[in-house]
Amino acid sequence: MKLYMPTLVYNEPGCVVAHGKEICALGTKAMIVTGKHSSRINGSFQDVIHILERENMPYVVYDDIEENPSVETATKAAKMAVEEKVDFFVAVGGGSPMDASKAISLLAKNPEYIENAQTFFYGGPKLDWYPIVAIPTTSGTGSEVTPYSILTLHDSHTKASIGHRIFPNIALVDAGYLRTVSYAGMVSTCVDALAHLVESYLNTNATFYSRLYAKEGLQIWGRVKDKLADENAFAQMTGEDYSLFMQASVMGGIAIAHTGTSLPHGLSYPVTYELHVPHGKAVGMFLPAFLKNYADMDGVNTVLNLLGFDGIESFEQYMKMILGPVIIPEALWERDVESLLNAPAKMANYPFEMTAEILKSFY
Ligand code: NAP
Ligand code: FE
User: Fold this and answer.
1) What pLDDT does residue 358 have?
2) Which of 55, 56, 66, 349 is deepest in the core (most CB within 10 A)?
3) Which of 145, 147, 54, 138 minimizes the C-alpha distance to 105?
4) Residue 124 CA to chain centroid, in angstroms?
């Protein structure tokens, strides 16, 4: 049994500004990796600029990370990092900029692979990367504490985790940055965190340690779940509620760092690629069926109890209510099921036998 969490995590208000010196000790020139808009609106971008300038740290900005970042985007940013002689990365945003920064850092450190980035990401030698600071502004992916970098592969019309395990060096977690997330954005990202907790708890690789994090996270998520019930409840969110969702997301990240995710995540990738359904919603739509079909009902009941649901039906109702419908065309669904059944790594995380027939009933 292994407990491995090499990321130094600070989870407190104002932690970016408070830990500026530690960030700047990681290198001599930084690249800020972020999305197009949101980090400038929620204040996280300004906080990073403030500490870099205060510490006289040179930096460049790559602010063109799209949702579900692609191999091409990571390659483009890595080229810029090499040209600019960057030697550490500060990722600011949701899972997209954080995941992208891991791939960018790896490629920038090994520029001889830039022309064959996809092959390097998905099967190349395990080489070193530059230090990474991750500053999450959504309470969903937990990417700040996971070794995963999930990129979009346009040639295979899906998304997949690169073959390298890259933990950020420092995670600076400040729930204050969540204040600008819309209701739909909070629902989707928080459901992603919920899925991490559930899929990690009910997982072949689950251990005493991973379950400690998953259980605590499920209980915390359950305490605040009513705040996502509708827009009115959401409007009543307090600072404490945001902190709890953020805490649950970090717990979920630490849990999946040890176990990986399972079938709902595996099924979600083609749905997101083809139908542009946000990651958390695409995963969450499969959670009720995942629980219903799970062979160990004691495990399922523990999950439901920790979340504060009195049974699978009320869980299903709640999920339908907050997520709304998703229509998957039949041909896409067939391809989705088929490709998951042929993905040994994902299937291995599911502890029981899974047939095409059962998997098809997930939607
Ligand atoms: P995201 O794709 O990073 O961001 C979604 C949208 O939310 C973007 O438009 C973004 O704006 C906006 N946004 C981010 N923070 C905001 C804030 N504080 N206020 C208002 N808007 C905000 O969303 P995500 O769900 O966090 O990340 C999803 C990605 O993470 C997927 O690619 C998924 O596969 C991956 N993922 C990774 C792991 C892992 O372990 N590494 C686990 C699960 C999922 P901008 O466009 O300005 O950025
Ligand atoms: Fe996820």
Assistant:
1) 96
2) 349
3) 147
4) 23
Q: Which residues of the chain have pLDDT under 70?
A: none
Tokens of 136: 């999450």
Ligand nearest to the CA of 199: 2
Q: Which atom of ligand 1 is nearest to the CA of 148?
A: 41
Token digits for 123? 């099967």
Residue reference for tokens 């510490």 = 55
15-57 residue pLDDT tens:
999 999 999 999 999 999 999 999 999 999 999 999 999 999 9
Task: Tell whether the torsion through CA atoms of 106, 112, 117 and 121 is positive or negative.
Answer: negative
Q: Is 146 in the pocket of ligand 1 (CB under 6 A)?
A: yes
- pLDDT tens per residue across span 100-130: 999 999 999 999 999 999 999 999 999 999 9
Q: How far is the CA of 276 from the centre of ligand 1 (A)?
A: 13
Residue having the nearest C-alpha atom to atom 4 of ligand 1: 94
For ligand 1, atom 45, name the residue with the nearest CA.
35
Q: The whole model's pTM is what?
A: 0.98
264 Cβ below 6 A of ligand 1: no
